[in-house]
Amino acid sequence: MDFNLPTDLVAYLARLDAFIEAEIRPLQAQHDNERFFDHRREWARTDFEGGGLPRPEWEALLLQARQRADQAGFYRFSLPEAYGGAGGGNLWMAVIREHLAAKGLGLFNDLQNEHSVVGNFPVIVMLRDFGSPAQQQQFIHGCLDGRYRIAFGLTEPGHGSDATHMDTRAVREQRHGRPGWRIDGEKMWTTGMHTATHCTLFARSSGAAGDARGITAFLVPADAPGVKIEEYLWTFNMPTDHPRVSFTDVWVPDDAMFGAEGRGLALAQAFVHENRIRQAASSLGAADYCVRESVRHARQRRPFGEDLARNQGIQFPLVELATQVEMLRLLIRQTAWQMDQMPHPEVEKTLSDKVSMCNYWANRLVCEAADRAMQVHGGIGYSRHKPFEHIYRHHRRYRITEGSEEIQMRKVAGFLFGYMGPNKF
After folding, report:
1. Do residues 135 and 142 touch, judged by C-beta distance below 8 A?
2. SS3 letters for 124-169?
3. Quick one: average pLDDT of 143-153?
4. CA 308 to mean position of chain CA atoms
5. Vertex 82: Cα angle to 60 and 142 (nearest 5)
6. How many angstroms separate the Cα of 204 from the Cα of each of 163, 183, 216, 241, 250?
7. How does DSSP classify residue 23?
8. What is the pLDDT of residues 295-352, one digit of tens each?
9. CA neighbours within 13 Å on the CB side: how many for 296?
10. What's residue 111's pLDDT?
């Protein structure tokens, strides 16, 4: 049993660090771009008078960083070679995401916008696995080069974790001699809709409320008649690009159907395990950063003429957090490695509980670590001159949005008590 990271992965991290130092940090230092990362970050990023949306100059800077990463060969790492990637697996992506998050805030990795120099591409994977040949031809490279951006419309005002009771309806209807679908409903948290060209919209097309089957996905043009952004939902961490969107008498042709009719929830689940293990690794890296920064500060701070670090009231909470970081790192890497050893459908059957363990615990841990870092740093830790409040506000969302921790604990319980999984009885 070898717990060492593969030597080629270690070498890749070194090349990634060198690229960040040569290309990304200088870009961050230009034209007062530091305002997006220092104590001014929330105000610099947010157009508070324009609905709380991200400022165009902020999104333009992120795009420039991604383009540099793409030119250097890092951005598409996780994608198949056919799409310009390297086919990076789950273990590599988990280690990379932890490595980047452990660096703190910076243009190289700012997951408030799901931005990173090593990208995450759930929509591309969905198109690869469920799109028609025409959809793959149109959208895959179009999304990668920026011509298309696809939002995700699943959650509704009355239905969050339980998508099977959604109220949005799709009904077959012919218009202008063409077969298609009329869609009516409303979606919440439709992230990125302000710049989206299309929305992956989920609607019940058959069956009864609560049925997993009977929900169909559609690729709906964002500018289709009847699509309306009703409001942008301001959040704990601003800016916001999470609107409530209504769909009223929206018509799409048959070829807008995304995947098989009535099997739309398979799309929503297609990337969940990969996404959760990577996001868990990011939370782990951020937690590690908070602990290390707290230790460094405690060694430098000298209240009453003695190192702050000598106080057990400072030591013991950080010891517990550091211990959890080490244990969680092993579980995340083991789980990611196991995911790489099996076909994707097998992950749901045999490892889904471990992925949920990693994710919900990492999201809880980073919030505890950020809170402790504020406490150890005192007044300056509470201020925006340190990154801990931003880390807390950003990662707190994942205890809800990446499958709430209660939903994930229920998955773990299902495996543990034999209601689902390989030991079902």
Report:
1. no
2. HHHHHHHCCHHHHHHHHHHHHCCCCCEEEECCECCECCCHHHCCCE
3. 92
4. 36
5. 35
6. 10, 9, 6, 25, 14
7. I
8. 999 999 988 989 999 999 999 999 999 999 999 999 999 999 999 999 888 898 999 9
9. 6
10. 78
Give the 3-state secondary structure of residue 105.
Answer: coil
Would you kindly state where each structural domain of the chain is located, as residue ranges? 7-120, 150-263, 271-416
Indicate whether 104 pLDDT > 80.
yes
**pTM of the complete model:** 0.94
Helix (H) or strand (E) holding 273: helix 272-300
Joined tokens for residue 43: 């105000």
Question: Which residues, 6 or more positions from 216, have their beta carbon under 8 angstroms from its beta carbon?
Answer: 170, 181, 202, 203, 204, 205, 257, 259, 261, 262, 263, 264
**pLDDT value at position 166?**
94
Would you say 351 and 338 are in contact if contact means Cβ atoms under 8 Å apart?
yes
399 close to 315: Cβ distance less than 8 angstroms: no
Per CATH, domain 271-416 is 3.30.830.10: no
Q: Does domain 150-263 have CATH number 2.40.110.10?
A: yes
